[in-house]
Design goal:
Shape: globular
Strand order of the largest sheet: 3-2-1-4-5-6-7
Order of helices and strands: EHEHEHEHEHEEH
Length: 194
């Protein structure tokens, strides 16, 4: 079984997309939340998945928090870390020490609208302000920067003339994020990605 740890901070819709995809030979072994109140934890509980809360305030510093994560992932023999709307930036040292792939899903066609401050509705606000005709989502490797890792897969979504931030966010999730994230995980399991 290919074991995944999903890192979340909020509602967990991308986590739900992975759960619902029921990818062959994949086990979501652990859900890690940076927010003890995240609805994603309810999704994990309902699906019978172990969870762990690692709120920033519970640790002396980022290094201490990452040490706990690394120990847990090693103990569980996690094969892939998936950032599903997680607002924690992993250090290059953690990435190197983990030594296995870490991926993130981002609600834009990177490199557009990536980096510090571009998460959640801020991305879609920027797309609408720029009057872009097309947006989408990206799954990329995590490299220690913010949304800077090598792109694995992208999917475009049209921006409609009457879109609001909410309608655009929903369409990007439904038509792009929830499709390409499970697809990339399935390709890892089949050995199609390094």
């Amino acid at each position: 079984m290919f074991k995944i740890a999903a890192l979340v901070s909020g509602g967990g819709t991308n986590l739900q997309a992975i759960i619902d995809a029921n990818i062959e030979n994949v086990c979501i072994d652990l859900v890690v939340s940076t927010n003890g109140q995240a609805f994603a934890l309810e999704r994990a509980k309902k699906a019978g998945i172990d969870s762990l809360v690692v709120e920033k305030s519970s640790f002396a510093d980022a290094k201490a928090r990452e040490a706990v994560l690394l120990e847990e992932f090693t103990r569980r023999n996690i094969d892939l870390i998936v950032l599903c709307g997680c607002l924690m930036v992993l250090s290059e040292e953690f990435i190197e020490d983990f030594g296995k792939p870490i991926i993130n899903v981002h609600p834009s066609l990177l490199p557009a609208y990536g980096g510090r401050g571009f998460y959640g509705t801020a991305v879609h606000e920027a797309v609408l302000e720029a009057k872009d005709a097309v947006t989408g989502a990206t799954v990329h490797y995590v490299d220690g920067g913010i949304d800077t890792g090598r792109i694995i897969l992208q999917k475009e979504v049209n921006v409609e003339p009457n879109d609001t931030v909410e309608t655009l966010q929903r369409r990007v999730m439904e038509q792009a994020e929830w499709k390409i994230l499970p697809e990339v995980i399935a390709r890892f399991v089949k050995g199609e990605l390094p």
